[in-house]
Write a structure and sequence with these properties.
18 strands, six-stranded parallel β-sheet, seven-stranded mixed β-sheet, homodimer, about 40% helix, alpha/beta, 3 domains, 20 helices, Rossmann fold, globular
């Protein structure tokens, strides 16, 4: 714990059990780490992800043996896809207790290996500090398994040294910048695809200037870990979700320039549809050190000081809520400085399109496709930034995966306003069935895609977790309730029932 | 799907995604498999466990890629510890789509290997049938990963043959029975520890007769997968949870005879407390073919026709609910033929002691210590046995892990009566802290063990899932509400707030 504190870890999201109690006592003994309880481990891992995306430093997620790692797993997966650093600490049985078949014995290492970027297991109490330092230095989702005897044993009392300084940022690669300049000058036009750190304020500004100078198309990756938007920042369009549309967005351009983004691939493979999004033969260029490269490129191009700013959001069409009016109401009312956590799934694309001209905000997407990321990530973002309002745009089927996060919002009095988009279906699966030519879903397909018998009552569920909630069915009422929720500190939930 | 149906699989608990849609369409095309939706994969795996414990044959759990396996993982763990057979089918990306870094790409095999008894991955559509047959033949929690192209491709049309007949049951081992007879005749007395299949009606009856003939102490393992009880059946006492008490229950006996039970070990290791429960030097005998062996032993001993029947349950002490009056109310009111699913944790031992003389019932425990097993297992048991009432004795902190199961109870109109024991704490951790000498828990320890700020409102949570619910605070009201809930078909929940 002293090693973690020295490395800047100041919060621990946990649902510990007996094998972690000595680690919990160490948190008390060492001090400097804020304990935040999640009522399910998926809340803890998702919150640690949201925390690190906003704070820029890892949180600790403290988990209970193999089942705890499994419970945390979906959001560990999302965190890995976001490139989030996280120190995952897992208690295990005492070394001498392994192999005896105790009920909670499991292959913790294998489970953790499938869900982490790296895994270490401490062999002695004396080694735990060095193991923690190595886990933190490894970066990514880094798991340290601490057997109970290593937790209750005595460790040497030396204070850990400060962690090694971060490596200096690499400069732009001149050759790559020059090649990108040539590609952007091609009369066939180019797509500049932003991802990762290029979606911060510097990258987005530079890309907007480049677009103003060259007329290139700027897109953002579909599911960014963190994107700075609004308040007059240029707003790159989102690379579409379905592969045909994504390919169409890149086709008819002479080149694809990647700035912080990976080579785009389809979310899912479909028969007869290629995995690769870029049309065959499209030249693909990659900009190392993408933020520095974009700024160098803008300078070389003699680009104007600022790119085009998107228009402010339009008010929503009044009347019964549609996906379009729901996201319009949100974009129209969202306050300055909001952190928008988006697990809206089938409404996400509409929200992104509607909100580029909203007040300045930070946007956090579902990065790994494992649903149940939104509520925990909102918890973590709110813990990291108590002075900023958090808006959670949340699909109902996905909200059900980690609704326990609402309790932590209530317990910690977090300023999170959750909008549950209640279409009472796994709409994305209905869309997929339609893609596959199934117009009238047969029994099993219907059984597995409908959530309306009974429709979950999100007002009751939220109230049961201690978060005040209301239900709305019109855009006007959604706007009014958003205003009320945003004006009042602490968590709120609005169930927005789609017509 | 045809292979699964031919092998007797008739229900699929699932929360499928895009990569499973062709498998869902196959369920529709083949017929014979009932689709049951869980709103979180941990519900699906726990329900498949409960189903198989009651039906005696495996259900299918259909899961979505690596995150789906992780979400199902805690109850896969519990199912493995219960020895439950389960066919876990996991969709994965199409073979050609792997390795490209799609958002949902993960190491499904490694995750599944950490959480299953065996794992297979299909290489072609033509092989899926044989792979499913092999997975079913392997027994235990058996996972078959089906890449999307193997699901959407054409498979040969031959109907699968019937699965090979089950191996005949082994007869009793005469030498082991004779050795056990000598041990039981020792004037120092012996403990007969029942587990596994020896906790069925035949084993329990034979053990009761043996106790009547020899005066030996009969115990059941602490967390049985399935135990037949009540209605005049002999009721073995439960091996205590904490190692000191468990060791005391075996000490002062000349031998320990294991019938279907594993060598007992401590649930958790503590400093200075041995992992092994039996005192050093205690002779330990194992009875192969335990049911047949117990019956042979009773015959050799010339045991009476029936062992001692426990006394009927006593009515609960009136007034504010205590753990003792809560379980007494339950034991006193439970109806003939109930299936009692017990994830009561700190009240479980009291319930087992109070209910041995209740009407005939089947008892299903939390086998692997991974909390969140109760509500899903109750779902599966109710699907398997629609004619039997299911009573779920459920700790509140654990209920929170898989509360989504309530929705499936409502959706499927299952006759499950849930009693949430609301102590609003992780009481077991408070007990562990006290064991460790912590009388006044410091900040982090308190933060991670208290659920009372806010107290989850189980009436609201249950209603939000579509299950009617009431709150009671006295034993009288609990009894009355249990009667009402049991008299009415469909699911109910009673939040029993402990004083």
């Amino acid at each position: 714990m002293r090693t973690a504190v020295a490395a800047g870890v100041d919060v621990c999201f946990a649902n510990p059990g007996t094998t972690e109690l000595d680690l919990v006592r160490a948190i008390d003994a060492v001090g400097g780490i804020r304990p935040v309880l999640g009522l399910f481990e998926g809340v803890c891992s998702g919150a640690a992800d949201g925390y690190a995306r906003m704070a820029g430093r890892p949180a600790m997620a403290l988990l209970h043996l193999g089942p705890g790692v499994a419970n945390a797993g979906a959001n560990l997966h999302n965190a890995r896809k976001a490139g989030t650093p996280m120190l995952v600490v897992v208690g295990d049985h005492a070394t001498s207790h392994r192999g005896l078949g105790a009920p909670l014995e499991s292959d913790v290492e294998t489970i953790a290996r499938g869900l982490s970027d790296s895994v270490r297991t401490s062999a002695s109490a004396a080694g735990v500090g060095a193991d923690a330092a190595a886990a933190l230095a490894a970066g990514g989702v880094s798991t340290l398994i601490v057997p109970a005897d290593c937790a209750w044993g005595e460790a040497p009392g030396d204070a850990p040294g400060p962690p090694p300084p971060a490596a200096p940022r690499a400069p732009a690669d001149d050759a790559a910048v020059a090649a990108a300049e040539r590609a952007l000058a091609d009369p066939g036009g180019a797509v500049l695809l932003l991802g990762g750190e290029a979606l911060g304020e510097r990258g987005v500004r530079a890309a907007g200037r480049i677009a103003a100078a060259t007329g290139c198309t700027v897109l953002s990756e579909t599911f960014p870990a963190r994107l700075e938007r609004g308040g007059g920042l240029p707003a790159p369009a989102r690379l579409p979700y379905f592969p045909e549309q994504a390919t169409a967005a890149i086709a008819c351009h002479a080149a694809l320039v990647l700035a912080g983004a990976r080579t785009p691939v389809a979310f899912f493979k479909y028969p007869e549809v290629p995995s690769e999004i870029a049309p065959p033969g499209t030249p693909v260029l990659t900009l190392p050190a993408p933020v520095e490269a974009l700024e160098a490129l803008a300078t070389r191009l003699g680009a104007p000081d600022a790119g085009a700013a998107p228009a402010p959001p339009a008010p929503p069409a009044p009347g019964p809520l549609t996906p379009a009016s729901l996201v319009a109401a949100l974009a129209w009312r969202q306050p300055e400085g909001a952190i928008v956590v988006d697990e809206g799934l089938t409404v996400s694309e509409l929200y992104v399109a509607a909100s580029g001209g909203a007040p300045r905000h930070t946007y956090l997407a579902l990065t790994g496709g494992a649903i149940g990321q939104g509520p925990p990530t909102a918890v973590g973002a709110a813990v990291a930034c108590p002075e900023r309002p958090v808006l959670l745009l949340q699909a109902d089927g996905s909200a059900m995966y980690t609704l326990q996060a609402l309790w932590t919002m209530a317990h910690e009095r977090l300023d999170v306003t959750t909008v549950v988009c209640a279409n009472r279906a796994y709409r994305i699966l209905e869309a997929e069935l339609q893609r596959a030519g199934v117009t009238e879903a047969p029994a099993a397909a219907r059984a597995f895609t409908r959530l309306d018998d009974p429709a979950p009552d999100w007002v009751a569920l939220s109230s049961g977790m201690g978060v005040p909630a209301v239900r709305v069915t019109t855009a006007e009422d959604l706007g009014g309730e958003l205003d009320r929720a945003l004006a009042e500190p602490g968590p709120h939930l609005v169930e927005a029932v789609l017509a």
